[in-house]
Write a structure and sequence with these properties.
Helix content: 10-25%
Number of domains: 3
Largest sheet: 9 strands, mixed
Strand order of the largest sheet: 1-6-5-10-3-2-12-15-14
Low-confidence stretches: 2-23
CATH architecture of the largest domain: Sandwich
């Protein structure tokens, strides 16, 4: 289910040899061309805009197939835009594309150009997929050009529901329509997600949803993903009462559960090899439930290689657990199903949970749609009488009638079992408990789970120099981020950590670096050893920072011209403990303690003989600050900066 991203970079080369042919615009495009608005003067904010976009679905009287027509019209507003534009239509083997057309009307020319030819692009990070895109390229575009695309296809739907993404994350849209045409007697259910949309207009043939004047949100650092703000429309087309449905009509989430169980039935069954795997995983594991669940999760996560598989309805159908264990590869639903099978052999009950790991707010309360999900995790029933260990609450849910359930993702190789991956926090999913489909919301997490613990010991030498040893432990989402960067390039990760250390201790020389990807408590650990020469800038200005480098862990952005909210990746706690050995006599920095809504900063410095010890804690449970809360953000960052600037006097200035 994950890994459904298609890359179209090669389409330009493939389409560069297409043949130009003169032809007229279709009637729908002519009307738009004749009424196209003038190009704004000066340098417009957006290099292009969508004048018109429409998706039309016509349901066959038997319920399947669906005729799908996709049309769009765009206008180039600036020479900053690319001189080539691609039109795409996504499809798979259950769809027959019957028409792929594109037209370009250059500015000031009456001639209309039809660029004939198209190419199917199948480039994906999915190992096995039938997902493709039909691409049509229009070339020679310039300021004032009008472009039109039209696709027509016949598709066999998997269910009677469908989701449409409206708006555009990169350019304005003047007018957008979704048209649903169905035979007499059919009914429509619909829901809007992310923002309230219009009710449909109704005529004798169907329903039309129309949205106008869409402006894309500005993409800002530490802001929400623009693609998570575009409106989503979920619809379900239901046949007349008593008519046999050609495709499953999911009336509610229990119906969705039955549909999924029909696909997954028997695929989590155990066999001797799975029982042996359970015995192997639990060998030597402590008797506590979390240790046993974690042992099974690590076996599946570490041993089964992730390879995405999404071919037709197979995108929702897990492989048999025994096949995944035998082949030692599979995607999220395959690994999750194997995990459930091994858990069952180990005496634990569990439930499939379908969720979206890449997009927020995709699930409608009243209209189940498989397209809402792109990931599969597992809910493990927590033993009724077993206490819940500290820190486990950030991965625990309580679905109605099921008690406490621990959410485990065996696909995310950077997440520690028992800690919910940051990408899932706050997302809604569908938990499948037999014939029951239960909507659940993932916990937002807490600072105690997602934390950075740094300890530094600086020892002043008789020669005027100093040695520094720094150990940093990352837990939760900070650990996921650090592991992912290390996996991307261990060299770049080391270089970035060493560069940050040299900024924190000016003039330092890095003598050693080591890292541990995953400790027994789930931490990612990095250790640095530094030398500070006597003539280094850090030791020459007469002051020595107690908490050097702390503020680098606190994400900041400029606020002066910011319009949108600040959205942090997750809650976090930064704990810093520092020791300065051989510190001269003198005064100590004053303790600090400041707090606000969802955050706090506390620091203190003390002396034991010739050793100065300091501790600083910054905790932020809140993850979103809207513009009206920016004064509090400034206060929070100021408090961190002031506490982190604590220093002792090495010598009088």
């Amino acid at each position: 289910m994950r890994g459904h991203r298609i890359v179209f970079a090669c389409a330009l080369a493939a389409l560069a040899v297409t043949v130009e042919a003169r032809a007229g615009l279709p009637d729908w495009a002519k009307a738009i061309a004749e009424s196209a608005p003038p190009i704004p003067e000066g340098s417009p904010e957006w290099p292009s805009r969508v004048l018109y976009s429409e998706v039309r679905i016509e349901v066959d009287p038997k319920g399947s197939p669906w005729r799908v027509v996709q049309r769009s019209a765009g206008q180039i507003l600036s020479n900053r835009a690319d001189d080539v534009m691609l039109g795409f239509f996504n499809f798979n083997d259950d769809t027959k594309v019957k028409k792929s057309k594109g037209w370009h009307v250059p500015p000031g020319e009456r001639a209309e150009r039809n660029i004939g030819g198209s190419v199917d692009v199948t480039m994906s990070d999915t190992f096995l997929t039938d997902a493709k895109a039909r691409a049509v390229a229009l070339q020679g575009l310039k300021r004032g050009s009008l472009v039109f695309f039209e696709f027509e296809a016949e598709r066999k739907p998997y269910t009677s529901s469908e989701t449409f993404s409206l708006g555009d994350a990169t350019r304005p849209v003047d007018l957008e329509r979704v048209v649903l045409a169905a035979p007499p007697g059919w009914t429509l259910r619909h829901a809007w997600l992310r923002s309230k949309g219009p009710e449909p207009s109704r005529d004798a043939t169907g329903w039309t949803f129309q949205v106008s004047g869409w402006m894309p949100p500005k993409d800002e650092p530490l802001g929400p993903d623009a693609s998570d703000l575009t409106p989503r429309l979920v619809v379900a087309l239901d046949p007349p009462a008593g008519a046999p449905p050609a495709v499953p009509a999911l009336s509610d989430w229990d119906g969705f559960a039955r549909w999924f169980q029909g696909l997954a039935k028997g695929r989590d069954a155990s066999d001797p090899a799975i029982e042996a795997a359970a015995k192997e995983a639990l060998a030597g594991a402590p008797a506590e439930p979390l240790d046993r669940i974690r042992a099974v999760a690590l076996l599946v996560r570490n041993r089964v290689r992730y390879l995405s598989r999404a071919v037709g309805i197979g995108g929702y159908t897990p492989a048999y657990a025994k096949a995944t264990l035998a082949g030692l590869y599979g995607d999220c639903k395959d690994k999750g199903t194997l995990f459930r099978s091994v858990l069952s052999a180990a005496g634990f009950e569990s439930y499939p949970i379908l969720i979206n790991a890449t997009r927020a707010d995709t699930v409608a309360d009243t209209i189940p749609d498989p397209g809402a999900f792109d990931h599969f995790v597992v809910g493990v029933a927590w033993p009724k009488d077993a206490p819940v260990p500290d820190g486990l609450g950030s991965a625990m849910i309580e679905p109605p009638g099921l008690g406490r359930v621990l959410v485990v993702d065996t696909t995310d190789e950077y997440a520690w079992p028992g800690t919910l991956p940051a990408a899932l926090a706050g997302h809604r999913g569908a938990l499948i408990a037999g014939d029951r489909g239960i909507l659940v919301t993932m916990p937002a997490g807490d600072p105690a789970t997602h934390r950075i613990e740094r300890s530094a010991v600086l020892t002043l030498g008789k020669d005027g120099g100093a040695g520094v040893t720094v150990e940093t432990k990352y837990f939760g989402w900070p650990a996921e981020t650090a592991r992912a960067k290390y996996a991307g390039s261990a060299v770049e990760r080391r270089e970035s950590v060493e560069a940050e250390a040299r900024r924190a201790w000016a003039g330092a020389e890095v003598k050693d670096y080591s890292s541990t990807l995953e400790t027994r408590d789930g931490a990612y650990v990095e250790t640095l050893k530094l030398d500070l020469p006597a003539d280094s800038a850090e030791l020459q200005d007469g002051l020595l920072g107690v908490f050097a480098g702390t503020t680098a862990d606190v994400a900041r952005v400029p606020l002066a011209k910011r319009k949108g909210p600040i959205v942090f990746e997750g809650p976090v706690r930064l704990s810093y403990v520092a020791s300065i050995v051989g510190a001269p006599e003198g005064g100590l920095p004053q303790p600090q303690e400041v707090s606000g809504t969802g955050w706090m900063v506390k620091s203190g410095v003390s002396r034991e003989g010739d050793t100065v010890r300091g501790s600083l804690v910054y905790e932020r449970a809140r993850t979103r600050f809207d513009p009206e809360a920016f004064p509090e953000v400034k206060q929070m960052w100021s408090a961190v900066g002031k506490a982190g600037a604590a220093a002792i006097i090495l010598r009088p200035r």
